[in-house]
Design a protein that fits this description.
Blueprint: H1 12-24, H2 32-36, H3 41-50, E1 61-70, H4 71-78, E2 85-88, H5 109-137, H6 146-154, E3 163-171, H7 172-181, H8 189-206, H9 211-219, H10 229-235, E4 242-246, E5 277-281, H11 285-295, H12 304-307, H13 316-320, H14 325-343
Antiparallel strand pairs: 1-3, 2-3, 4-5
Length: 344
């Protein structure tokens, strides 16, 4: 047996074609150096890509340093699948700043700024109110962490427009799927397009031979699945916040994302992933984002516009000390803002 660790200075397409040729030809490993000298490299690369042999494109990983991305886009795109690794600034351990918010293009900047500043003011007030309460509850050796724990609760008030910075690592095929997926992304569309434009530039800097694959990804068909959560709840008589149910007989249709070369079904999950035992869980968007990041739980996540309700989660500690008035006030502000925005 012989094991050799590949260096990091090889091009993604050389590794992909080398791994493919090692499957299809001869008895020996075909190295990336061999591929770089081979005149039929791009011919085989395009062939295996269009044939759906995508495991060859999963050996090489990009690590992107991302700054100023909204947590909404991270939730909808970057963490909506299990094929990534991220190290993201923590809203629990790092104090958030009022100037770290995403503003939509061509928006009423003053209106958005007022909204963000109001929400951030409530965030800071909640930390101030909760810290001494939590300090009293904690054992002596943990009292110093009271403010950090208060920040963890207070982050429920922060809008999903709050920015984050992160290391984000994905393989080549996942990066290509991002390029296709943003064409129908239901939220943060302009921000997603900006992300993808920069993503393509960075990929081509590393390997210009990715150009035809990027072009294919740009032109591939994709849909965002229509998901009827209420129908699922009604069919299985779901009235609780959490319910496990058997849906082997579930009546679903495969959507168009299963048929394409890009297999976008791994990015935009729909009801057809359901089978055997599943769980319905009612939880906040903040909790779902945390679940994505730490557990990479696959889930059907409908368009926010379709499932948005005036419904919210109040942590027990907040309800017990009767300061949920802050929550109610910020929700009223949020609802008024959304109504005004709809009129605009």
């Amino acid at each position: 047996m012989k094991i050799t660790a590949l260096k990091t200075n090889y091009k993604p397409t050389d590794i992909a074609v080398g791994s493919a040729r090692s499957c299809y030809f001869g008895k020996n490993i075909i190295t990336p150096e061999d591929v770089a000298k081979w005149d039929k490299k791009n011919e085989l690369l395009n062939s295996i890509f269009k044939a759906g042999h995508h495991t060859t494109l999963m050996h090489y990983h990009f690590t992107f340093l991302i700054e100023g991305m909204s947590r909404l886009l991270i939730w909808r795109l970057l963490h909506s699948h299990p094929f990534y690794n991220s190290e993201q600034v923590s809203q629990r351990y790092a104090k958030m700043k009022v100037d770290n918010f995403t503003y939509p293009k061509n928006c009423n900047k003053e209106s958005w700024q007022n909204y963000y500043e109001t929400m951030f003011n409530y965030y800071e007030k909640l930390i101030e109110k909760l810290t001494p309460v939590i300090e009293q509850i904690l054992p002596k050796f943990q009292k110093k962490s009271a403010k950090k724990k208060a920040q963890e609760f207070a982050r429920y008030l922060l809008p999903m427009g709050m920015n984050a910075h992160l290391y984000h690592t994905v393989n080549v095929i996942t990066a290509l799927r991002y390029i296709t997926a943003v064409k129908v992304i239901p939220e943060a569309k302009e921000e997603a397009n900006d992300f993808v434009n920069q993503l393509k530039q960075q990929m081509l800097k590393i390997d210009e031979n990715l150009a035809p694959l990027i072009e294919f990804a740009e032109n591939e068909k994709v849909i965002f699945p229509e998901i009827d959560i209420e129908r699922i709840k009604e069919k299985h008589n779901i009235k609780e916040k959490v319910k496990v149910f058997d849906i082997v007989d579930y009546d679903f249709n495969l959507n168009a994302n299963y048929a394409g070369v890009m297999r976008l079904s791994s990015m935009y999950l729909d009801e057809s992933i359901l089978g055997s035992f599943n769980s319905y869980i009612k939880l906040s968007l903040s909790a779902d984002a945390q679940n994505q990041r730490h557990r990479r739980s696959p889930a059907v996540r409908a368009k926010l516009e379709d499932i948005y309700k005036r419904d919210f989660y109040i942590p027990i500690i907040i309800a017990e000390i009767e300061i949920n008035i802050y929550i109610k006030k910020q929700l009223n502000i949020h609802m008024i803002f959304l109504k005004k925005r709809k009129k605009i």
